[in-house]
Design goal:
Layout: E1 5-6, H1 8-12, H2 35-46, E2 52-53, H3 62-66, H4 85-93, H5 99-113, E3 121-122, E4 130-140, E5 159-169, E6 172-176, E7 179-180, H6 195-204, E8 210-211
Parallel strand pairs: 1-2
Antiparallel strand pairs: 3-8, 4-5, 5-6, 6-7
Helix pairs in contact: 4-5
Amino acid sequence: MAYSETCPHYLTLDDTVYGSKFPEWYACCPPMRSAETVAALKERLADGAIHTVSSDHSCYDLSQKRERTDDVRFMPHGLPGVETRMPVTFTAMAPNSTVEDFVEVFSAGPARINAVPGKGTIAAGFDADLVIFDPAEEREVDGGALHMGTDFSPFEGKTLNGWPAVVVSAGRVVVDDGGFHDPGPVGRFVARNGFAAHHDALSVRKSPSVPATVSA
């Protein structure tokens, strides 16, 4: 079986950005495509032909980008996008997809396809790693106010819906309206199952449950 993946910037930006005031903001590989291609990509996402949406996050800053504005071949290629991945994707999908579709490509599908145990579903025995987001919250992107280690966002000035409100990691609330609550170094290695074994295990334990957005 073959699976497909795209990124938020390919669902929302087209190649006209290279004619903007700051074309270096959008230097990435592959580059942005035509508006017609973007529309076709969104159509395939709505039809379920795209299985995952990832950030492709590359946290270059503008000083690094502008060191080689003389030759795009040597300019660092990549965009910062991990912090805006959720609202950009949700905004792009909202007109033609359900919240369940969003959860599938954003969390449940990647966990299942990559055979990662304990992730992708709200159910007994699964890790309590959850992102609770408000689909009605609307914000304008301010690259300088984001928390990524860079000084710009390719989505600067765009109004997006669906921002995270609460983040729970291993059952601990680490982000809420009071800010970030650092739990310290709590990460652990999670070994992937074999693909077939993982899907067999999911079938055995299949029970009524609600898919959830899972923090990476």
